[in-house]
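Summary for the funding panel

The consortium committed to producing paired sequence-structure records for every protein in the target list. Below we show the first two records in order, beginning with the earlier of the two.
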Amino acid sequence: MTTAAYRPAPVGRVELLARLERVLNTRGRALLTGPAGVGKTEVALATAARAESRGERVLWLATLPTDRDIPGAAAAALVASITASVSWPVPGTGGGPAAPHGPGGFGILEELPGPQRTAVAMLCREAPIPDDGWDPIALRLALAQILRTLAARGPVLLVVDGVQRIDADSADLLRFALHLAPAALRVIAVETPAAYGSDPAGAAVPQPDAAGPEPLWVPSEADVLFVSPLHADEIAELLIHHRLPSRMAGRIHRASGGNPRLALAVGRSLADARTPVHHAETLSLSGRARDLARQLLGAASPAVRGTLLLSALALRPTASLIRRAGRLTAEADLAAAERANLISLKEDGTVAFTAGLLPSTLVHDACWTERSDGHAALARVVDDPVEAVRHRALATDIPDEGLAADVAAAAETARRRGNSALAAELALLAAESTPVGLGAQRITRLVDAAEEAARAARADLAMRAATDLLARDAAPADRVRARLAVLDTAGQGLSDLDEIYVHAMEDSEGDTALRAAVQLRLALKYVLADGDPVRSRAAAVESAALAGSVGDRKTAARALTVQARMERVLGSPDAERILAEARALEVFERPLGIRNAAQILTIRHAMFDDRLIDARDQLNALLPLVERRGEVEDAIELFRTLAEVEARQGQCAAALPHAGRSLALTLEAGLSPGPAWYALALAETAGGSFARAASYARRSVQASEEECDHVFLSRSLYALGRVQLVAGDVADALETLRRVQAAEHAQSTVDPSMLRWHEELAEALLANDAPEEAANLLADVRPVAERLGRTTVLLGCDRAYALYLAASGKAEEAASLLTQTADRFDMAGLPLERGRALIALARVERRRRRRSAAQNALQSAAAVFERAGASPWLALAAETGSSRATEPDAARGGAPASLTEAELRLALLVREGASNQEAAAKLYLSVKTVEARLTRIYQKLDVRSRAQLATALNAWPSHRAAPESADGPAGG
């Protein structure tokens, strides 16, 4: 086998790969098992590539479905892979091979005794097989000797992919050979478990085409590693890795159950769709995705699939319920399905399908009679009247007003119970059960269903209800309400809904209250999808005025909230006054949720102003209420904002789980993950990993671009540029932060506190030798921050300006300003910003050759980061301190003062012969950054080649080797 010298770990499999390596090193045998399509082969390939890169020989035996019925097929394929193109001597002829052999294959065979060579030749059909067959003992010994000889020449990794398809003869040969193999031969077996059916009495029996695999060893000789499905966030990463849209990652995860093969099939279905699939639409599944689901279901017998269909129709399927509904072999059937990884069975007998595509395919492929009979059977045995009514309605396709009324009452019961998703489903079912003759009643119920779906964040149900209603002769007001429900479930994806806005405006003509509601949604669209806060403010002002004229305090409060948000963006001093008006209205007309409410905007304004204790206290007060009774989008907003506050505040241990909770809820609801990934990028930058932060920020950028979400595109680019800067990738940081600058200017953003990109861009400009541009940028933003009273924005500008002073040769002034800035950050309750200023101070003091002062600053920074749990910043401080012993000392005739610390480290590496790629890897930079930095070094030292650079460096009195470890630029 020949694999790539470097094969990155499959998405989500880093820990599994490490565990597999440990098992192979200690036990020498490992069995990878899991459902079809879960990625077992990818894990084996990655392990094989790593082994081959270490110089090990890799043997890859990939079995075929037909191998199981051909005696010796797998063993012959293994020998062929070892010997490559060897032709075997025909017994009795004494002839040699007719063709050149592969690497070492013929030599291995020549060492075999004659009877063993003959048996191998028969196995490979290079010699005739007598009537009594080959000598099984000779063949056993031959295969064992071949593997021993290979292992004697060096480590060997044997991968058997598809062990369940190995024929019995080959399994016997391999079992014997592996039993005698030395420790230098390690083995990975890859298995997809087969299902078992059941006989009429309920006993488990093997399927005719799915008998259990022949074992290659005694079970105690190997560790079994289960390859589990991927988490939702890992599915998103997988989609990005394959250049597929990630904005639907949550829904794709539900449909695939985390199975990578299914997820990619669904993702490609969406990518291949003629028009972009909106969050509110049913996933368009290609034949490929359905066929994969059918292949997985095909592992079960028809009887098992019948039981699974009944489980797919039930709302809360259990083994007991399915048996009472008429499937007497329910327990055995479900056990067979669980073995095939189609479902999971909990201790209480609850059935859960491993992938949402499986029950939908079962229902999709079943005829109406099968579905009707199943629902009728379930209606007779469920113990919840709400569920019974649901099944009664689904068992018939004849509209009935009595039934529709019962379903509507059941929807109200579900709503009171707090089950908003079921309430939305039942509300739509009630509308669909209403007779045609009662058109007005049906339309009323469709409007209720759409609005119920909006409250439940069920975009698919809202779209179904709206589509049905818009196809009927509904009043303009009803059409507007249905369209508003669709807009309210759209999340960030508002860019593809222009037609809905246009029709909503037309239908709301003459209805002041509805026109106010439409203008409110337009205000949100203008800022999110169009990036135009001026138009957003105008729409919000009109909405508030219209709502106020008809006494609609709820809409007026929401419109004033949007207006206050835009006033803040545009730098208006009226923002807080307008927000106070919105809060006053909310006291009288309490909003149903906090999303887009004045209450949450008040908290975000506190966060922008760095009144973080106040913001966090208000959020923590809201948290229990939202978790008990709030909508899912309220919870997402709350956890995301809480994570942002805590990351800024230096509460790193709390920020990460809150950001993770926001992402989990987002993916579960099927909404765009861009905002949640942004929050995770901030939390990871504060207390996790710079590398993970950059990864989440890039995902947020992609999702925001897919959604045309201008607000979160700017935010995610800011998060990415900031982490690139502190990690030392200054060229990419400059490019990223320039995109933020352009986007914020295009959106007419004035207030610098809402996204603090100015100080980051100024530092990136300094790191890329553009000090005057950095100074001009700081000079432009400072008056605005002073006018608006943004004190901590000015502190960030002071830190960046101090770096400008240092770059201008005014190190003493820079050190003084950084000392003051660090103290003022501490007084403002911003520990991470204080630590970052202290790192910058340490670097300035080192350039002043004040080693003791530099060390004191670093120790203070490390103490700050340790208390905050800011792991990546603590590591950055440690790296900054460790670099001092490897730098030439100008006081002893060292480096020219014109070289920065980062440039000096690169120059030393290049002097030692490092290529641009090697230097980039050593310094954790991109190759593009290394190239740009090297160009500046050449210019400063007046050299034109690597040889001239080495000569210039070697002329220094103090010759030093390239550093063993290098600190990144910056954090300051």
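The next record, for a separate protein in the list, is shown here:
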Amino acid sequence: MPKILILSSNPRRDLDLNREIADLTSALQRLGTFELRFGFEVRSQELQELLAEHSPRIVHFCGHGAGEQGLLFQDENGREQLISTEILTRIFKTFSDEINCLVLNACDSDRQAEAIVENVNYVIGMSQPILDKAALLFSVGFYKGLAAGKLIEQAYEMGCIAIQIWSETNSQSTQSRQYRKLEYAGKVGQPVQPDLAEYLKPVLLKKSELFPSNVAASGSVPKFPPLPAASKPPQEFVEYVQQEAERKEYKDNARAAYDNFGQFSAQNVASLTKSEYEQRKIVLKKVKSFWIEGFLKPSLQGDAAISLDMKARPDAIADLSQGIEALSVELDTSYEKLRDTQIYEEIGQGRTLLILGSPGAGKTIALLQLAQRLIERGEQNLSLPMPVVFNLSSWAKDQNSIVDWLIDELVEKYQIPKSLSEPWIKQQQLILLLDGLDEVKEDHRNDCVRALNKFIGLFPQTEVAVCSRVRDYEALTERLQISSALCLQPLSPEQVYQSLDSVGGSLAGLKTLLKRNAELEQFAQTPLILNFMSVAYQGWSVKKLMDELHSKEKRNQHLFDTYIERRLERGTTSEFNKKHVLRWLNWLASQMVQEKQTIFLIEKMQPTWLQNQSEEIAYRIRNFMIVGLSVGLSFGLSVGLNDALILLQDVGLSAGVKIVLIAGVKTGLIAGVGIGLIAGLIAGLSKEILPLEKLSWSWQRAKSRLMPEFFTGFICGLGVGLGVGLLPRLDPGLDFRQIFIYGLSFGVIFGLGSGLGGTEVEQQTVSNQGIHNSRNNCLIIGLGIGLSSGLIDGLSYLKTGVDLSSYLHGLIGYSLCFGLSFGLIAGLKYGGAACIQHFTLRQMLHKKNRIPWNYAKFLDFASDRLLMKKVGGGYVFFHRMLLEHFAQMDRYRVPVPVIPESTSQSIAKTNPRTNVDSSNAGNISNTAPPPSNPVQNRIACSNCSHNNSSDSKFCTKCGRQLIKHP
């Protein structure tokens, strides 16, 4: 097998030699005929050493030529250093017996070729600067000829014809004019623009000794310029060249789309005030904290299976942190995957970067590596558009326009108020990194793409990157307007073993098994699977692995179960029982699948997470009773006591303590029932828990909800006024004017309260922050409105003309009650009811053993064990495949009984139907679950056929709504 030594040197860093050599290498590897060796960033003193070490038949140099002065290499410090033509001639003369051909892909290298060819049989140089793509296609055709057994003269001709074939299908006006040229101070002038056609620029020179003596005696070096083809080249060769040209075009397009992503948006630079500067700084800090520190780094740290040593690959040599090579994406395999699809035909129609791949291939990692680069750029210049990461799965919930969805997501995920987010969206100051198009419910996926295209049409300077599983995207009828598409492919076997070697630990059994079993080796080529295998199967023997992994159907299940077991064994002893950990994560995953959630926020738990209608009714009754009784008792007690004191002062003890107390109780009961009923209805009838996380007021927010909220408040106020009006006053009878004032006051407070919201981005985000903020805001609003309304009522009471003593009684008594009623209702309306509803829901779920009481502590534990990841104030599963695995656990796990912790062990030992020893409770995956309900009492999902409990509303596996047949 002929050996080719590929050399490169570019001390000026003005050529993209790493990618050039990567493209050349992949083309040569596809031919499968040559043994390849490499010398990158060659120093002048290394040239002889490399030639001696590898003894190549062909040397291929990529770099700069300096005309008659020689070729440009670098010294020990990386600075440019010329090797003169004379020295080059002497070096190649030393190896003339071994080297048959030298290819110099450098400008004006035909002059070095003329000197070197005296000692080397064949030398190919460039007479003028040549387009990079033309140079590659020449090499493709040339080496294709050698691989087919052609003579070097014939192979050279095939290289020139390859350029001609490409030139005929690509006009010069549309070609990317990237010439290999050098400006060298003092000796080399400004290069002249090429006059020759591209296919005429490569020149072949042949050693004169190979010719008859009369030719050699002439003193001229024979040159073989390409000749016009007498006939058309073979169709097979034409198709080969065209495919290689298409491949190169795709790779250049993909690299440009990735490398330049965000550059178009950078043209839209905003002028910032000091406040805007601080807000943007907080946003970038959040995105970095949530997705880079919270998600990307935990995915890569310590898991060499997915953070591959890219420098071991010949197509990724230099600094890989900024370019597309930082991704585990092979552009050649990506091209092979896409070239026969409709996706390939759609490339270049828009500005969206599409990242595709199979489950576990690393799409989210690729997206976040792109985000990391954009964040670093944004930190240097905060006036540039800001990258933000979202998951599209939540779009299907309401199917709003992308603008409205983005506003909601920015509030929920990043605590960015609408007053900031809406202008940023409309002024195109955001770069959207959208994960999980395939996680959008299948019925709505085409609608989502349609909405995205509409958004891109409205905001053409907003750059967008979208991730999706490749099969799900191919199934769509609607297509994104994409600039390019990357398809992440499985790892090669070499990368698999390289990764396992770099992990360390005892993986000898796993490596041996993979080498023996091609099917399992293919199974391990998915980055996520390889990562999990390297964690789960430490220390396992070949026999044990074969026994557990022989079944293809149960392979994933066993791997994920074992991975979970290993992760739960990690770290210090936990207070959480393994059985309960599995149950709680199973339930959480099922709910997230059902709700189409990717990020779980504790404060966003809703009554829809209850299992059936009876639980929802119980939840509403509890809220009604808790709020109604607590508010009614507190208000009724204060009103009754106040009324008793006033009556006691008016009539004295002569009327009797019993009469005074009865009057007070009666008054308090009437007031308490009225206010308690209203408060209970506010909490009990709410269909959604809506925390109030940030206080500010905006007319833009208020005007859309002003009238509905006003009428709601007006009705509540009339009820409060009626209750207060039944209390004994100075003048007997109902004061309808006062009742109307109550209604009007409540209506104004409710209406104006609809404008409450945030004006700034929250700097800190912690677990359940929304509920904590709601509690604080409830107290602030309740006290503020209560005191102010009580004072206003007291001042208005003074205008009635009563004497000072009566006025003081009214101010201290009735005005206090008036203020208390306003404060209680306002506090409940704005944050208080959400807190009570949230903790009622949590208490019910905890009692059913679906969640622990300290949920944040448990989720932090799961994140520490790398089963989940903490993203800001929310949590995500380590990977969607792990989420899906947990969601399906109920299909083969023994149900954990809802029993007190203290008695769980004794029941496990005494129950004859449960063959699970309490000391081995975690190893329950192989125990067949007893049927908890008869099959006839369960509902089969029409989508996935999973059997669900008869009182379930949604499938616990796929989340689809269940159809109950009569």
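Regarding this second record: Residues 613-651 form the longest helix (39 residues). The first strand starts at residue 3 and ends at 9.
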